[in-house]
């Protein structure tokens, strides 16, 4: 039995993203897809005393056909600015001091030129903090088939998947019948039922970067991700 999930990379994603990674044996960063503006690829939200704040990495979009892994960062000092925002807003979080040095180093070394590389830089580090040992692959490692559903199926077949765990957004286009014909079971990720945790600046908000969870709960953070309780 082998479970596989395939998703575009996000910048310092929310806990649900790491939940789906932790729920499978192999996870494919699917950045051969079109870059979409005002999405999660290059930005995410944090909590502040003045409400939610976006942290956005400035990028250049030269055409609508541009892929995520072709998308270049345009402002070289974005990492310094983002770290300052995190340090300012999470200084009083219970576990910020324990992770301060590690994340400051991650940000100061986030000098890659493409958004896909930056996202992988943080995803790998956060997986380690959360104890997630899932194998991470890059879609550029594979020859990709034509067709949305056909491409996902071909990736699953090449990986030897018996189960494909899909994000709920794909329900609009995924053709489950071709997976069934190929003997691959499709499951849908359920992002409901997360427990609230200690969080600064009420009211509580689930849909923020996982850094919020880590700075507030420390080593206990994995207990608020459902796959961490398996």
Write structural notes for this entry.
The protein has one domain. Helix content is 33%, strand content 16%. The strands form three sheets. The protein has a five-stranded parallel beta sheet. The longest helix has 16 residues. The protein is globular and about 55 Å long. The mean pLDDT is 96.
Total strand segments = 9
Give the termini distance in whole angstroms.
16 Å
Number of helices: 7
User: Which spans of ≥5 residues are poorly predicted at pLDDT below 50?
Assistant: none
What would the principal axes of the Cα set say about the shape?
globular
Series of H and E elements: EHEEEEEHHHEHEHEH
Strands in their spatial order, largest beta sheet: 7-2-1-8-9
Residue share in β-strands: 15-25%
How many individual domains? 1
Major sheet: size, sense and barrel closure?
5 strands, parallel
Average pLDDT across residues?
Answer: 96
Helix percent band: 25-40%
Radius of gyration: 18 Å
By secondary-structure content and strand pairing, the structural class works out as alpha/beta
Reconstruct the topology from this structure.
Blueprint: E1 3-7, H1 15-22, E2 26-29, E3 43-48, E4 51-56, E5 59-60, E6 72-73, H2 78-90, H3 96-108, H4 115-130, E7 135-138, H5 148-159, E8 163-166, H6 176-181, E9 185-188, H7 210-217
Parallel strand pairs: 1-2, 1-8, 2-7, 8-9
Antiparallel strand pairs: 3-4, 5-6
